Amino acid sequence: MSSGSSREVIPIPADERIKVIFKRLEVRHDGDWIGSGEWYFRAWVDGQPVGNPRARGGEQSPIDVRDRDQIELDQSVWCAEVNVYSKTEVQVVFEALDKDVISDDNMGSFRYTLRKNAAWQQREFRHRLENYTLIWEVQLSVGGVFVRHPDTAVFATRRNIVGRTDTGEVTYSTVSGVIGTCRLEICPVWPVPPDQSLPTRPPPVGVTPVRNGAAKEVRPDSDINIIPNPAVIPLLSDPTPVTGPPPALPPGAPPGATAQTAARIEVTYYYPDTLNFTDDDPRLEWEADPPDRIGFLGNNRGLKVLVYGKTEGDVLLTVRFQGAVSAQYRAVVATIKQIPFRANILNHLGSSPRTRPEDVPNHIAIANRFLRQVGLELVPDANVQRTDGAIETGHAAVYRINNVPINRTRNVHGSHPISSRLNHRPNVLNIQYIHSIQKNSPQLLIFGWATDRPAHPDHPSVSDNLIPTPSWMAPTVAMGGGGCGVSPDPNPGGPIRINLLEASNRPGFPNLAAILITNDNGDPTNQQGQLRYGNCIAHELGHVLGLRHRVGAGPDGSIGHPPQQNIMCQGEPPMVRQDFDRIQARAMRRSPLVPP
């Protein structure tokens, strides 16, 4: 989660202009005993003259005025705009004069001071003088427009700094002068953990927060980018034009960005709800640093944006609430890397896996929607060479191996079971569907097992020190008094790290990578079962790529938060664990199983 900046951001002065408009005069006494008066007017706003000077003599042409006349002023002329970004008051002066032969008579003048006090306000004034009443108005610019706005329209915003402390909030004022406090967060963990698992935030006093971040019902046909706020933003070509033929991409170029392939970045929490932010709200504007690293698909405004990578490297996304920095999100732009796989269904009469060949593509599709967060994709092994009696099934890279000994599919055990290496190819993920893994209790469920993994080049650990933090950290003493990097929590004060698994190779098979998937995942044909199988494949692949279980921070100070929502958590259902984070992405992508 990030709400606020851990690096200096130069503020952009917001559009904080007011307009003073002189509208009309209601005449009570024209000033002459006989006939009509000949009036003209002068005005100043913030020390600057307002009005329409006469072509000769520097004054206006007099207007014939009689008692009870209403004089409508040309509001396009009798107005002035003032930028009040750094002002606390604005002087307004108006006077009416009656043209006379010897000397002009002052029919009344007034001075009024508009004061900011707590906030500027839109309002209409009626000033009654002896000879006339002046009606004038103050309008405030919202989105560059001067009109009579709804009272709830926001006029000005400021990053909330108390002393030297950035509270992580934005103070705003409406055109009616109401002052409020707004907080936005972009949580990098999806689904968003409960509040008690999050860094301490200023409590929403007297206001109601709006939350986003519920777990996704991932299906085989879900958009590949269904999980928002990924650690990796995919490198994609510029989007295809709406009209005309699509441009010819050079060989090896990434596919074009679409609403189904670009990364979804979403605000996950804000208060107060009375601001009623929308998905494409013009008050929220996103920007990137560096600006040429990503492109926005569609507009860059609102609670949700679509972004795609243009050049590889780190990127910091910032969302501003009418100019004030409100929240930030750090990610990595990288290419999508493909890991070849083959799946083998190991059958023994009476003890076969429930999974059919036609189920496997659905499981892989769901796994790929979780892996998209780290820029990885499982693709069928193009080599159709077979061993160990494997039979083609009509589904790419999916095979049956029938009549295996019962201990190779039921109650499989041992440090390096033979089941894992059947019909394998070096440097290809071998996904073995089996009946079950040996367990100590019949009630125990064992969904999968990563039996073989290559040595990771960064073992024993990988670290990162970017702020906002690339992974979730709870501010605990066990981490050296560090924090999450989210204002107002302290920064970690040094690199963060995760510990990696050691290699698990068997003699004679140094390039074998294999996982076992069991019937404990449930019915492989319905939505609930497909989700569990796909989630389990993503979890076990994480182990093959070097990741340990996410079980909470240990005494060694490695990252352990949040345990439940991370895919590497052990035992949580797939509607809870759906997240891979940035530091895991770095580790996974450096595994030798991932093509360079």
Would you kindly provide a written description of the structure presented here, covering whatever features stand out?
The strands form 7 sheets. Strands 24, 25, 26, 27, 28, 29 and 32 form a 7-stranded mixed beta sheet that branches. Strands 1, 5, 6, 9, 10 and 11 form a 6-stranded antiparallel beta sheet that branches. Strands 2, 3, 4, 7 and 8 form a 5-stranded antiparallel beta sheet that branches. This protein has 3 helices and 32 strands. Strand 9 (123-128) and strand 10 (132-142) form a beta hairpin. Helix 1 packs across helix 2 (527-544). It has 3 domains: 17-119 and 121-146, Sandwich (Immunoglobulin-like), CATH 2.60.40; 210-334, no CATH class; 337-589, Collagenase (Catalytic Domain). By secondary structure, it is mainly β.
Overall geometry comes to elongated
Discrete helix count: 3
Number of domains: 3
Unreliable segments of 5+ consecutive residues: 3-12, 54-58, 473-491
Features:
single chain, 596 residues, mainly beta, Immunoglobulin-like, Collagenase (Catalytic Domain), 3 domains, seven-stranded mixed sheet, six-stranded antiparallel sheet, 3 helices, 6% helix, 32% strand, elongated
